[in-house]
Amino acid sequence: MAAAETTAPPARRSRKRLWIVLALLLAALLGLRWVSRPSQVGWIVLSQAGRALGLEISAGGASEYRLRGTPMLEVRDLVARVPGSDKPLLRAGRVYLAVPWTTIRAAGASLDVERIELDAPQLDIGELQRWLASRPASTEPFDIPRLSRGARVRDGRVAAAGWSVQGIGVEFAELDPDQPVRGRLSGRALADGVEVPFDLYATLQRPAAARGLGLAGAIAVQAKDWRLPMRVRAGARLHAGDDGLGLDALRLGANARYRAGAGADATDLPFAFGVAGPLRYRDGELSLAPMGAALRAAADSAVPNLDAGGRFGFGQALALRWRGRIHAWPRAWPALPPPLGQSAAPLAFELDYDGKADFSDTAALRVQREQTLFDGRFRLPQMLAWIETKDGPPLPPLAGHLSTPKIEISGATLQGVEVSIEDDPPAAAPAPAS
Questions:
Q1: Taking the CA of residue 48 as centre, how many other CA atoms within 13 Å lie in the half-sphere pointing to its CB?
Q2: What residues contact residue 399 under an 8 Å CB cut-off, 6+ apart?
Q3: How much is the pLDDT for 129?
């Protein structure tokens, strides 16, 4: 009897189960309604991504998502910050991500992604370096995701102290860790009054360090008074190490034209050049050291044929150290007085430059042919103007000291010549009207 008294009647048990089912159904409906709001789904995904990356990630714009077919998430006005920083590491006007169900069910075990798109992303290099320094050290290899329909970046921007790259466009049709990657890269770099637009096609042997990279396309260097458009081809290997990011065994060749002025006074100098060496970016400086360089032009060109070695660096300023030789005094340059002009010996030279990226500051130059030595300085704009002058002075616009055993001028022979050459002072600005 006691056991029978404690057993609830069947009707009561049925009503209790019904209430439980109704409560669960109501909770499910409320949860579904909450999750069905794109802003809530976006918040969940960004929150999880932020925790995984050690970043504060938010989106201020409208979000969209789709579950049918291939799941898709789209968020707008995304901002990612290093915790505690007021400066964004990354901004993006729009982020689109399509991920197959197999990846979602794998819960991180699979890295298959269908497509990624970024509109107007802005990356701060200083904040990126700060974030990388805060990440725990890991010996695990970095896994490359598969993108079956590739990726696209439109109107991107990367900024650092003293330079930026704007209008960045990146597009490739597919990414597979075990297959070559082919894509297109465009944009324009800006630094210290110089603009470098580029539009390149790239082929990467594999998306991993130490793999081969090929580049081909158009690059130009543009300053206030001159342009240097060129068609380039380059080959290298990707590099990532304690000495920075960059390229190993870089070999770059280009057909270029130096252009300045307009109309009858226009200058157009075609030439070819090549550079080689390891390229690195570290602590805000881009360097190519040690580097080799070669310059070639037609026999009647005003561009000298030369070979050189040294170092190139660009950070707060541009630095160039070249040691090499000019094969011969160009025919298009004003003739040197005898016996200097009759010598067929190459001209050994040393060139040192520290200054603005447009080469408008003073460079140090040391040139020697046999026993004749010049040690001085010059400015590239004045030198180029002298090269193009048909009836100009016999010597280039240099300042410094010249020594030579003998020189002939206007029929007179001078022995043991020592000459100091000074720059002409710049013209005085007109006095303001009183």
A1: 7
A2: 376, 377, 378, 421, 422, 423
A3: 81
CA 365 to chain centre: 29
Confidence (pTM): 0.81
CA–CA dist 237, 199 (Å, integer): 20
For residue 339, is the peptide bond before it cis, meaning its omega torsion is within 30 degrees of 0? yes
Check: CB of residue 88 under 8 Å from CB of residue 80: yes
Phi-psi region of 358 (alpha: psi -120 to 50; beta: other; left: phi over 0): alpha
Where the chain has pLDDT below 50, the residues are: 1-5, 28-41, 426-429, 434
Amino acid (1-letter code) at residue 354? D
Instruction: Look at residues 313, 235, 309, 301 and name the one whose alpha carbon lies nearest to residue 272.
Output: 301
Cβ neighbours, 10 Å, residue 328 = 16
Task: Give residue 231's identity as a one-letter amino acid code.
Answer: R
| DSSP secondary structure, 121-190, as one string | -EEEHHHHHHHHHHSPP--SPPPPPEETT-EEEEEEEEEETTEEEEEEEEEES-B-TTS-EEEEEEEEEE
What count of other Cβ atoms lies within 10 Å of the Cβ of residue 417?
A: 14
CA distance 150 to 46: 22
Residue 264 is classified by DSSP as G
Q: Which residues of 34-44 are buried (b: 16+ CB within 10 A; e: fewer)?
A: eeeebeebbbe
pLDDT at position 264 is 75
Report the candidate in 363, 329, 368 with the shortest Cα–Cα distance to residue 349.
Answer: 368
Per DSSP, 110 falls in state -
- Give which of 148, 97, 87 is closest to 122, Cα–Cα: 87
Give per-residue pLDDT as tens, 106-153: 655 667 888 999 999 999 988 888 887 787 776 666 677 888 999 999
| First-last CA distance in the chain | 123
